[in-house]
């Protein structure tokens, strides 16, 4: 029984984990869950982390990023898609709104899988926006 693989986490189970991971957001998460707004829940966690960033609480943010990576790793395809497209996408905004040394430290703490996804997103954006620039010329 101890060696049984963990069940893949769907959005309903993910919500319960997020309530546990983010006790200060429990009310907001519950309200958004009633509305079946998983993307809104992830956005609420992003907003929370951005507030921590303004307070320079880098190690706490790194801890929450690790928790989100655990959820990502164990999530179903829907949970993974939302985390990639909202949570990991938010790293660019965090980078822009943080001190260089804070971003460097945060990136160092970031799970490797999220670093890879973030890098892929940056490369894809560069290709996409470069094509847009060429079309406008």
TrEMBL record:
Top-level taxon: Bacteria
A family per Pfam: DUF7674
Ranges for domain DUF7674: 16-122
InterPro entries in UniProt: DUF7674
Protein name from the UniProt record: DUF7674 domain-containing protein
Source taxonomy: Bacteria, Pseudomonadati, Bacteroidota, Flavobacteriia, Flavobacteriales
């Amino acid at each position: 029984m101890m060696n049984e693989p963990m069940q893949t986490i769907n959005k309903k189970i993910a919500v319960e984990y997020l309530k546990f991971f983010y006790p200060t957001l429990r009310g907001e998460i519950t309200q958004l869950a009633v509305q079946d707004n998983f993307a809104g829940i992830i956005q609420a966690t992003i907003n929370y982390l951005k507030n921590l960033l303004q307070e320079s609480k880098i190690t706490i943010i790194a801890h929450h990023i690790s928790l989100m990576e655990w959820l990502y790793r164990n999530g179903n395809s829907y949970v993974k898609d939302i985390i990639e497209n909202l949570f990991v996408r938010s790293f660019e905004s965090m980078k822009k709104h943080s001190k260089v040394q804070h971003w460097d430290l945060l990136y160092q703490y970031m799970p490797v899988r999220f670093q890879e996804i973030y890098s892929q997103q940056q490369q894809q954006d560069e290709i996409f926006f470069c094509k847009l620039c060429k079309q406008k010329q």
